[in-house]
Amino acid sequence: xxxxxxxxxxxxxxxxxxxxxxxxxxxxxxxxxxxxxxxxxxxxxxxxxxxxxxxxxxxxxxxxxxxxxxxxxxxxxxxxxx
Length: 82
Hints:
Order of helices and strands: HEHEH
Number of strands: 2
Structural class: alpha+beta
Radius of gyration: 18 Å
Strand content: 15-25%
């Protein structure tokens, strides 16, 4: 997670608790990691955020794009040869 998101989450946590907001949180994570499991830390952070904020954690989708990065590298190399 980008460090600039953490201050937002802290303010949001306080807002949710103070105003007793009830909402559902879903996360879609694609941090350009090769494998989706590398997003697990982000999911843990968001789950903990929900617990502290007293809101409902509904899970997330972890996306890896390693295959696409390899395809783009191959395509770039082919374009240079042409």
